[in-house]
Amino acid sequence: GHDNRIERVKAINCGGGSNEGFTLTVGSDDPVDSTGNVIADNIVENLRGGWQTAINMFHSNGGANYHISGVVSGNKVIWNPTNGVPISGQVAFGGWGMGDVVFYNNLADGTGSGFIDDSAKNDGYTIRNNKFLNIRGYGLNIGGGGAYDNIKITDNQITLKPDAQGFFFNGKVNDAVVERNIVDFAGLALPILFNGAVNTVAPVLTLNL
Questions:
Q1: What angle do CA 62, 65, 66 make, to 5 degrees?
Q2: pTM
Q3: Beta bridge partners of 154
């Protein structure tokens, strides 16, 4: 479909169980590009464990070079820790099969990862002017099976818990631009890791050590 919108929703106590779950998501499986989609001004709180991405935009035919495009903006994903609830796999924002999707002015606080894209063919999405705070796993985790071309990651603020990593490029990331991001890390946190990334523009990071 086209021109789908999720706006001004508050979702509480969602969890993914043993399978991957998605709290607020716009997606398509039609053999055409999906355009004009919006996920804006929503709040997701108290992720309850399991594999869970709070806010997500995808095209399930991304492997066939169909893409989804749109805007993800003004959303807040806040993980309020509860004893006994693991954070492994809990992600604030993500997607796959993305074309011209712009993620901007979003907040993630205390989640396992701020952003993930690890499958299908992606070309030309942007992550800018977001705050990924108190991240416990990866600030941004991009790459793996699929293709990740022409991605722009600019002007984001990332703060990390000990042992977390700011950026993880996990292969097949091509012609990315990573500029003017602030990464504030504590303890053994690592600002950036590469795993088979190809032709990635050297990141320009401001590190608060």
A1: 65
A2: 0.90
A3: 128, 179
